[in-house]
Amino acid sequence: MNDRPVAGVALCFVLGYVLALVWPSPWFTLYLTLGAGVLGCAVLLFQPAGKMLLLGALIITGAAGWYGETTRHNVSAISIGERDEAEVRLSGRILTPVTVDGDRVSLQAAAVNIDAGDGSVTPVSAEGERLQLSIRLLEKEEQDAAKGWQRGDRIVLSGTLKPPAEARNFGGFDYRRYLFYQRVHWQVNAKGLGSVHVTPPGQGEWGLWLPLRWNDRLRDLSEQVETLFPQDQSGFMKGMLIGITDEIDPKQFDLFSQLGLTHIIAISGLNVAIFLGCILWLLRRLGLARETYYLIAIGVGHQMD
Hints:
Elements: H1 5-22, H2 30-46, H3 51-72, E1 86-94, E2 99-101, E3 104-115, E4 130-136, H4 142-147, E5 154-162, H5 175-180, E6 184-191, E7 196-199, H6 209-219, H7 222-228, H8 231-242, H9 250-259, H10 262-266, H11 269-285, H12 290-304
Parallel strand pairs: 4-6
Antiparallel strand pairs: 1-3, 1-5, 2-3, 3-4, 5-6, 5-7
Helix pairs in contact: 1-3, 2-3, 7-8, 11-12
């Protein structure tokens, strides 16, 4: 803790989260976190023997209380009674980048209103309830329309509301648990863009999504790559620079596959450079010597190659 205070505090926070996750308790509340904070201030003020051990224990306790309080409020305001699913009409705002994978479109949206028509679904009347949306495309032309959606856009769709699927096999991927830690408790499935209506935000509308929307635009470098390279090279360069492999010539991709070099495309040079830059910045802030964080970066880059 004395030599690497940031690393020590981070480790104690992780241990506190693990403690609350493995041994959940009604005692893990915000009051416990506040109490640990007060005692921590007292330890810093009076400097008793074993100060660092006491501070570490208090940080672990405070983190456990914070995790327990957060989990306690991670509940849904939506209810469909005893049914497994319900047909609903949803209006909301897109919160995440839109992923188009073949005939599937995935995104998350904050619900403004959910209406089942028969009053069987508890309505959401304020922005906040986050939902996972999955839209199955019926025509190839719908892909281009879906790729134009952005964070902050208003979305209205009709679909099936149901809980996310749980793991079917022991040790398998639990999609419901995965979404739970993103504060998502429901998903809505729709078919075709005929049941979906997306509009950009109006003038004067703003929120946390606005800077993220700008950031998404800055990250979309595909158009710039197309202007810099000829048509027969742009697809390959997109794969190398920004990791977009959909437009690579299949014959060219097969050649790389036969040589065992597809990892060069899968992990693009620009992505590796940005990732290693973030690693170097973080290690410098943690107080590591230059030789140490360079060696760590070299090792990480070697594992990614």
